[in-house]
Amino acid sequence: MLFGIHWNLASQWSFALSITPILLIGMKVTVEATVFGFLIAMSLGLVFALLRSMPLRAVSWPTAIFVEFVRDTPLLIQLYFLYYVLPNYGISLPALETGVITLGIQYSAYTSEVYRAGLEAVPFGQREAARALNLGSFRTYRDVIIPQAIPRIVPALANYLVSIIKDTPILSAITVLEMLGVGKIIGDRTFRYLIPLTLVGILFLILTVIAAWGVRFVERRMPRGGVALK
Amino acid sequence: MTYLAQFENVTKRFGDTSILHNFNFEVTSGEHVVLMGPSGSGKSTVLRILMTLEGIQDGVVYVEGEPLWHEYRNGVLKPAREAHLRRMRNGIGMLFQHFNLFPNMTVLRNVIEAPMNVQRLSRTEATERADELLERVGMSNKRDAYPLSLSGGQKQRVAIARAMAMRPKLLMFDEPTSALDPEMVGDILEVIKDLAQAYDLTMLIVTHEMGFAREVADRVCFFCDGQILEQGKPETIFTEPTEARTRQFLSRVTGAKKAKVGSEAQS
Asked: How far is CA A139 from CA A127, A133, A154, B118, in A?
């Protein structure tokens, strides 16, 4: 029994059928971690990208060092650090929240590169034309640069969505009962690993296929010349 | 006498390469000046400095008697800040070789964007102005199209309307026809000629189109190694250039033209 739901060991099929609702509860946690982690990654990534592009070195360098540090250390260490070390300093968060924040920070390091590359890929002539028309830098970014960068940024960002889904099982290391963690507990308790792990694999596949399909949908919808202004 | 634009002992370097060295140059109001010369001779740089796209290392550039890249602070001439550059840029417009239209905006929006946001015109006023200019350059039927659907010549027409919508006193053209198909070149040059006659504009044009220069230019300046080697009325420069380097360049340009036309006739 897990989450108040009993499994049925009579046959392989009845076992599979009886544990599916349990795994779906785990899947809900997986989806939550993915969605909130991704939202943090998207917003924090933009902040990092803008801070890094600032001319003031006192701002851009520490940001660059932090982003590099996050990118180059394992997710699991960051996770343990936030979960086991920070409480010593009076900061103690529930496991799921810690996991979501860690995923968000780790992926913001990647998405900040996506934003930076996207903004830099807008041809330099566009900035020059905006300057020749005397548009201010806010207008230039809002009306010219960002709308043209979006078609380059969004598909690359969306690819990280697929990636973040596949990274959520690591949260089970800090006791978050996400889908794989739930599957493993079922295996531990019944000594039957094949069916729960297979089902978890299939459910992950369904999630990533849906996400990848969404990515392609978004990609196709992206206007070539940038987000239109009339 | 106050010139519309004046370069006084200007030096411009890119890294170790000196593009302009102690460069002096004046443009009077209403004058149409064509800049010619081999690539790397500094003619585009002159335009880009006036458009505040490139800074200078030494000397002073004046626009209507006021320093462009410098400003007086406590009576001392200091490098200009962005606010000063913004104010100075107001009367200056520029056309680019590759048009640089904003692909995410319709033709109309391209033309009204700056008048609305920089000159604070209402959308109605800006649109009125834009429609008049698009009509003038023959692009009214494309006002709701996006740049991606336009040909090179059409893009340059829109770019001209966009620059004119800011009502510049000085309009600069950086090789406006060099990225166009040969059959489009004449069209664009006609549009520029029309503007030159219809508006009280000072024009600085970098081009190798000699026939066009002859018709439009009050003065042709021949650039070589960051200096003006020779300048004068187009007929003088084209028919009896005094410098050997000018003669050599002109014969190459006309030679290349003939060869191009010849090969097209064959194909």
From this structure: 11, 11, 21, 9
